[in-house]
Design brief:
heterodimer; A: mainly alpha; Sodium/glucose cotransporter; B: mainly alpha; Four Helix Bundle (Hemerythrin (Met), subunit A); 76% helix; elongated
């Protein structure tokens, strides 16, 4: 419809203009990569959520997986997501701040040395490029199905818009746009839920049709299915996904962590992360529950669905009236663009900070790295475009992405937990543990043919944990001055700036100047503990009701 | 050397794009068939039976010459990718035969028949067929072990961290 095209066109133009507007204030790498450390907690909350929820993590791929396997997919939203946000906000974020770093690999180097930084950076870079390619593919397919426009030109337009505003505006533009996109997403997508539930007689109506009339497996409605489920055996979801991948995702995913490092204070950073657990919980109602109802709508109205990843697009195309469809698409494109933008900015940060500046071209003026950051952003986008056709071959993109994450995050969580909670962990131990854990994960998947990614993540975590402990005990303990401020037993009352400066003197390493911790007592409604407890109680209630 | 690398990149990209296009063909032909079947419904609603017959013929033609041969050919592969649709060939052909009679008889109640065929060539959720939940004694031990184990671990580990921290640093007011 013309009205839909106008709304979407206006939205894309707005995003494009925003990048140019924000680029005026970018003067240094700290501005470009960390948004000048100025974001309040609610921007962080919106940005973290919007970065996480895109075409891939959210509407299209999560929705597609929900269509394919049922309510089990809601465990990402009701169970693991909030658990990961709360745990990371309460326990891990402070250590990144105290280390005065730009990136997660930089933290690993500060604690363990340069070897682990290079390996981890390269692993994430590959994952990020595949993620961007997957987002572009899903976005292109979605718009092709909805608006009947050609696939490749659509992909190039999406890449050009998001590439431009991220390339010009850096993290500041990304965070601001993500907050706006968070609002648009909510406003644009909530009406569909009500329309749909009204059509099928609510959640009980869906159950009645699928369980009674269609004889569908009751496990289609189980958040934690039995131990023999081919996609997600319940106990392994808890072990592999909840304890390992999700916490690893929240604490180790550069684009998630980077938003928090752009906060104006440590408290804003922690609060933003914890509170983001609430919209994450609501996400299941936006794209999981509608997709459980989708088969009924498709069969009843004769709507063709070619593959699970396309189901969400088909649903809204046939349900929403003109005008509202445009708003909805704008909301969904928002989600996709914000995710791509977040990952794109983080990829360039890793390329410049963890590889280029650290190992290739040292000691150049700040402006040099700032320009290099923009070149890297462009290069990464081109690489992702080349990968789109490869990603298109995956029958379920969610599975592809989660398998890659399982390989990447199992060993990472092992060395991160040991880095913080066990002072004895040292460089050779962590390096050996990480490499053996990663090799085991690849062997487990490729050679032994393990298809359940929850199991891959758990066992690679256990192997990496065991090998790191043994190898650390067999080699020298780290010098206390090298790990001061980086482990749980460091003085939490010391100022972040003092710790980073002291370590810089001890190690002779370069650290980022961190802002002071503002010691102010927050009002009760912003109390971190209340929010964390409240979100965990909401989780429990949802699990008891739907589980 | 640079030219060789560039050539390799371009060639591999073209090859990958080619294979992606092959993957999409099964989607495109089923989509075409579904579009024609939808046109049958629309034409029948408008009482334009000539157009309905024309659209039906196109849909059947797409099925016989495009969709079905792809499904049959795929079965010869070592790992068939379209098994799901191959298993529903009989169901779709029965549906098409019934629809042919309804269109020829100008029966206005063709919608449910068309919808059934479209659903027959659509992708069905794999989760529909995983069977009822089965819990062995080991599953209960395993599941409860994780739950209770986590609680016990969290309490003792938390107490250990708290004690080890305060052993190094004195308690401050407000803590």
């Amino acid at each position: 419809m013309p009205s839909d095209f106008i709304i979407i066109g206006m939205y894309l133009a707005l995003m494009f203009a925003a990048g140019i507007f924000f680029s005026r204030n970018i003067k240094s790498t700290a501005d470009y990569f960390l948004a000048a450390r100025s974001a309040p907690w609610f921007w962080i909350m919106g940005a973290v959520w919007a970065t996480n929820i895109g075409f891939l993590h959210g509407y299209l791929a999560h929705g597609g997986a929900a269509y394919e396997w049922g309510l089990i997919q809601a465990n990402f939203e009701w169970f693991q997501g909030p658990f990961g946000y709360v745990l990371t906000g309460l326990f891990f974020i402070a250590f990144y701040w105290r280390a005065g770093v730009y990136t997660v690999p930089h933290f690993l180097e500060t604690r363990y040395g340069p070897g682990i930084r290079v390996i981890y950076s390269i692993g994430w870079l590959i994952f990020f490029i595949i993620t961007i390619a997957a987002e572009l593919y899903l976005g292109g397919m979605f718009l092709k199905n909805i608006l009947h426009i050609p696939f490749w030109p659509t992909v190039f337009v999406l890449a050009a818009v998001v590439g431009t505003y991220t390339l010009l505006g850096g993290l500041g533009a990304a965070i601001m746009m993500e907050f706006v996109q968070f609002i648009i997403m909510m406003v644009g997508t909530i009406p569909l839920v009500f329309i749909l539930l009204n059509m099928v007689g609510g959640f009980e109506g869906i159950k009645d049709v699928l369980l009674t009339q269609w004889n569908v497996s009751p496990q289609y409605f189980s958040v934690l299915p039995d131990n023999h489920h081919p996609y997600g055996p319940g106990p392994w979801i808890i072990l592999g996904q909840c304890f390992v991948v999700t916490v690893g995702w929240c604490a180790g995913h550069q684009s998630m962590v980077q938003r928090n490092l752009g906060a104006r204070s440590l408290y804003d950073s922690k609060l933003g992360y914890v509170v983001a657990g609430l919209p994450k919980t609501l996400g299941a109602f936006l794209y999981i529950v509608p997709m459980i109802a989708a088969p009924i709508i498709f069969a009843k109205h004769g709507i063709f669905v070619e593959k699970a990843d396309a189901a969400y697009g088909k649903l809204i195309l046939n349900l929403l009236p003109a005008g509202m469809l445009g708003l909805f698409i704008a909301g969904l494109v928002s989600a996709g663009l914000s995710s791509i933008s977040g990952v794109l900015n983080s990829s360039s940060t890793i390329v410049i900070k963890d590889i280029y500046e650290r190992f290739m071209v040292k000691g150049k003026p700040d402006h040099h790295y700032f320009v290099a950051g923009r070149v890297a952003t462009f290069g990464i986008m081109v690489a992702a475009l080349l990968l789109v056709s490869v990603v298109a071959r995956s029958p379920l993109i969610m599975w592809l992405e989660q398998t890659l994450l399982a390989i990447l995050l199992g060993p990472f969580m092992a060395i991160l937990i040991l880095a913080i909670f066990w002072r004895r962990t040292n460089t050779p131990g962590s390096l050996t543990g990480y490499l053996v854990g990663s090799a085991f994960a690849i062997y487990y998947q490729q050679v032994l043919g393990q298809m359940v990614f929850f199991k891959i993540s758990w066992w690679s975590f256990v192997v990496a944990l065991a090998v790191t402990i043994v190898a650390s005990l067999l080699t020298r303990r780290p010098k206390p001055e090298k790990i001061e401020g980086l482990t749980w037993e460091s003085d939490f009352h010391a100022r972040v700036g003092d710790i980073t400066e002291q370590r810089a003197q001890n190690n002779g390493t370069k650290v980022t100047q961190m802002p002071e911790i503002k010691v102010t007592i927050p009002p009760w409604y912003l109390n971190l503990k209340y929010w964390a407890t409240g979100i965990l109680l909401v989780q429990l209630a949802l699990l008891l009701f739907f589980g | 050397m640079r030219k060789i690398i560039l050539l390799l990149v371009v060639t591999s990209t073209l090859l990958l794009a080619q294979s992606a296009i092959a993957q999409e063909k099964i989607i495109d032909v089923r989509q075409e068939m579904a579009d024609n079947l939808t046109s049958v419904k629309t034409a029948a609603k408008n009482n334009d039976w000539a157009a309905a017959q024309d659209s039906f013929d196109k849909a059947k033609d797409t099925w016989q010459n495009e969709v079905k041969p792809l499904l049959v050919e795929d079965q010869k592969e070592e790992k068939p990718r379209f098994q799901e649709y191959f298993g529903r060939i009989g169901e779709v052909e029965d549906g098409l035969n019934k629809l042919a009679q309804l269109v020829a008889g100008r029966d206005a109640e063709i919608e449910s028949q068309v919808n059934a065929i479209i659903w027959g060539i659509s992708h069905h959720p794999k989760g529909f067929d995983v069977g009822p939940p089965k819990y062995s004694a080991w599953d209960w031990v395993f599941g409860l072990g994780i739950g209770l184990g986590w609680c016990v671990f969290a309490i003792f580990f938390g107490l250990y961290l708290r004690r080890s921290y305060y052993r190094r640093y004195a308690k401050q007011s407000g803590m």
